[in-house]
Structures are given as C-alpha cells and as structure tokens.
C-alpha cells in the first residue's frame, strides 16, 4: 500500500471509516491510522468525523495519466514519448536526468504528486503538499548546443502563462524564472517557479530538463512556513480541473520545445515583456553577497534583463548569477 492508494480513496471528499479503508487496501485499521498521520506531515489536512471515520478537509483530484494523455491533441501525442505519473519522488527533474543517463528522456514527461527534495533556482527548497500543486518535468534533446537555449526558461514562463490566461488567471512574469499572481491580500506573489537544467556540449547535442512547480492550493499552516508571499491558482480559478490543466501545460511545453531551437527566444520576447511585472520599477539587484538599486527595463532577444543603475548607466544582466526583487 502507498500513500497514493489511500489518497485516491479519500479524494472524493466523502467520509470513509477506518474499517472500509483497511478492507479496500488490505491493511489493518491501526495501519490506516498511521498512514493518515503521515498525510498530515505531507500537508494534507484530514478530519476525524466522530463515529463515522475520516475525511479530507478539501477534496483533491489525483493525477490520472490516461486522462491527461486522452486530452492531448494529435501533435502533442506525436511529440510525447512517454508520460510518467508518480506518487512521491525526491525530484521530477532528477527522475528525468536519470532517464537521460539511461539513453531515454527525450520527449518524456514526469508528473509527481509530491516532491520530497524539490529545488528552485539557486538551490532553494520548493515545498509541495501532496496533490495540491502541479509538479512536472519535461525532457528534450537539442542538437545545436547549450548556446541555442538562451532564454528558454523565459519562453517557458510565457507558454505556461498563456495556458493560465485561458483559465481566467492574469499572471505576470518576474525575471528570470518566476510566474506571479496577485494573492488575496493584494500582494503580487510567486505562483510558479521554473528550473531548467542542461547537460551536454556547448556546441553539440545537449539534454534539457525543464521543471515547473505551480501552486494550485496551499494550506494556511504551510503558507506561514514558506517565509514569503505565495499565490495559489485556486484563489483565482476555484473549480479547476487539475488533469485538464496538466494536459494543457504539457501540450504547450511540447509545442514550445519542438520550435525553440529553430526560433530562439526572440519569438517569445515581446510576449514576455508584455507580462513583465517590474518593467520601469525600482528593483534590488543581488550579485553574490552584494546588492544594488536600479530600475528594471525590458528583456532582450537573448533573454537578458536590461537595468538602469542609480548612476544613470545601463547594464545587461545574464541569468544564473543574480536575483532581481521588486521594491514596490
């Protein structure tokens, strides 16, 4: 028995007795109780209904690989080599990196209900309660080398934002790899992060793993532990079909990756700048342990961010070594 088996039984939001759950999963009521305690540690709130059993505080929709694939259009199915849906992994990016080391990986997608060692940019931890986010990675092999992938993470931000806009959200983008959304308190907060990891030749074939973590819902206790504002899609789109969203994001990413090497980031530049959260605003630019103030400009065709420093000079910032935070 896995946590995923238990979650799929509870995901309807109904009350289930310990005896019913034990019979369905082939374990004792005591073992069910222990598994329910584990769920609390995974950020899932379980209510004990006196005399009746257990119920999730909010209904969850487990990921369903067959439903996701059935929703994909013909072009996406042709590009998709394999789709994995896992209950728990240390990291979906790591999973696909290992697939590449085994001679596979290209065109593969890994979705996971919960990551136990997910990472954001610069090694930051990405917390994911079970079944309340969209965590996925896509693997793609490029022939032209690492240099052809300038701006890829920004283009991914555009592609995902376009999907979210079809659902009624109005995301904005923060350079170089965050998707933002207004939280209920009115603050512009992080909704999703993008992590692109590339291995291979500077001028020859290289393998890219594109990871995305998108908050769909977030329990209040977990929001408090994050230490920074966080937005969730449920605040804007409460009746979201999680599997439909997963299919639409996979479709958008596969289409992007199939075109990116030939077109480059320039094809997505205008759309990124149109959603730029901090264009024209004062920002704090951090490089290593130093910080300076500047005004953010647009991104160029290579995905670099231009800023105007306090002394009046302009400077181009490349990704991977700095962070930009709006001072609004």
Automatic annotation (TrEMBL):
Biotin binds at residues 91-93, 115, 119-121. The keyword Iron does not apply. GO terms for molecular function: ligase activity. InterPro entries: aa-tRNA-synth_II/BPL/LPL (IPR045864), ArsR-like_HTH (IPR011991), Bifunct_BirA (IPR030855), Biotin_CoA_COase_ligase (IPR004408), BPL_LPL_catalytic (IPR004143), HTH_11 (IPR013196), WH-like_DNA-bd_sf (IPR036388), WH_DNA-bd_sf (IPR036390). Residues 75-261 form the BPL/LPL catalytic domain. It is an enzyme of class 6 (ligase). Its EC number is 6.3.4.15. Residues 18-37 bind DNA. It comes from the Bacteria. It catalyses: biotin + L-lysyl-[protein] + ATP = N(6)-biotinyl-L-lysyl-[protein] + AMP + diphosphate + H(+). Keywords: ATP-binding, Biotin, DNA-binding, Ligase, Nucleotide-binding, Repressor, Transcription, Transcription regulation. It holds the Pfam family BPL_LplA_LipB. Coiled coil: none annotated. Belongs to the biotin--protein ligase family. Acts both as a biotin--[acetyl-CoA-carboxylase] ligase and a biotin-operon repressor. In the presence of ATP, BirA activates biotin to form the BirA-biotinyl-5'-adenylate (BirA-bio-5'-AMP or holoBirA) complex. HoloBirA can either transfer the biotinyl moiety to the biotin carboxyl carrier protein (BCCP) subunit of acetyl-CoA carboxylase, or bind to the biotin operator site and inhibit transcription of the operon. This is Bifunctional ligase/repressor BirA. The lineage of its organism: Bacteria, Pseudomonadati, Pseudomonadota, Gammaproteobacteria, Oceanospirillales.
């Amino acid at each position: 028995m896995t946590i995923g088996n238990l979650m799929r039984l509870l995901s309807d939001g109904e009350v289930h007795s310990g005896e019913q759950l034990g019979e369905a999963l082939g374990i004792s009521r005591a073992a069910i109780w222990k598994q329910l305690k584990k769920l609390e540690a995974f950020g899932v709130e379980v209510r004990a209904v006196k005399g009746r059993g257990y119920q999730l505080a909010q209904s969850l929709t487990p990921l369903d690989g067959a439903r996701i694939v059935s929703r994909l259009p013909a072009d996406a199915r042709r590009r998709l080599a394999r789709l994995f849906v896992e209950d728990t992994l240390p990291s979906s990016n790591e999973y696909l990196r290992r697939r590449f080391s085994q001679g596979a990986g290209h065109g593969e997608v890994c979705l996971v209900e919960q990551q136990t060692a997910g990472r954001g940019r610069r090694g930051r931890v990405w917390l994911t309660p079970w079944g309340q986010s969209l965590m996925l990675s896509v693997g793609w092999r490029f022939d032209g080398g690492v240099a052809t992938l300038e701006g890829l993470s920004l283009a991914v931000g555009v592609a995902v934002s376009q999907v979210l806009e079809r659902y009624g959200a109005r995301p904005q983008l923060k350079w170089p790899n965050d998707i933002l959304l207004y939280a209920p308190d009115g603050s512009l907060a992080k909704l999703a992060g993008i992590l692109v990891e590339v291995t291979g030749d500077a001028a020859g074939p290289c393998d890219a793993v594109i990871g995305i973590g998108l908050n769909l819902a977030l329990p209040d206790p977990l929001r408090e532990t994050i230490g920074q504002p966080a937005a969730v899609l449920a605040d804007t789109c409460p009746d979201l079909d999680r599997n439909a969203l997963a299919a639409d994001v996979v479709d958008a990413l596969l289409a992007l990756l199939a075109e990116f090497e030939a077109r480059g980031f320039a094809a997505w530049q205008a759309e990124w700048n149109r959603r730029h959260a901090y264009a024209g605003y004062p920002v704090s630019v951090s490089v290593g342990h130093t910080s300076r103030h500047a005004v953010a400009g647009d991104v160029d065709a290579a995905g670099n961010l231009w800023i105007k420093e306090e002394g009046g000079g302009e400077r181009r910032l490349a990704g991977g070594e700095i962070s930009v935070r709006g001072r609004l």
